[in-house]
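Database export, one record per block. Field names are fixed; values are copied verbatim from the stored entry.
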Amino acid sequence: MNGQRHRGKVHAQPRGFSLVEVMVALIVISVGLLGIAKMHAAAYSSGGTASMRSLAAIEAASLASMMRANRAYWANGLAPAVITINGTAVSDATLAATATTANYCTPSGSAPCGPATLAAYDLHRWVAALNAMLPSPSANISCAAVAPPISCTIRIDWLEKIVSINGQGATGPAMQAPTYTLYVEP
């Protein structure tokens, strides 16, 4: 055995990957990329939802500021108990009629600007801004009829599309109607 070499079969070591391993790796990577795409879509949808909620909060705060500026109308019990706004339609006939016919106390106008006229103007401008900012908005403004302090509630509803985390329905993305509520003491 001193000078003899071992003459057994030498097996070659496999090098590289087989086709099956490559296919499994591609499938795993594809599933991961699909998951990332779904998370991106959900994040994009959540960003849009947050944007709409922020706009609703800004619009509600805007109306609250207008209510505080016109305390003669809102805080003295002159306002109707409930004002419903659906699109551009205002439920209170007096405010709606004043909003379409008044000159809104412009310097060239001859009539003095009263609290009701100013409230109609503010509400008309607010409804226009609300319709420009939110899709299919509706609002409800309700003020308690008790004497001071009068408290009002501003509730804004709108429609928005949501992306489902677990899957889409056969009809496409679902719609939801979120609500933003603000309590105000004018």
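Remark 1: Strands lie at 82-86, 89-90, 138-143, 152-157, 160-162, 174-176, 179-184.
Remark 2: The chain has one domain: 19-184.
End of record.
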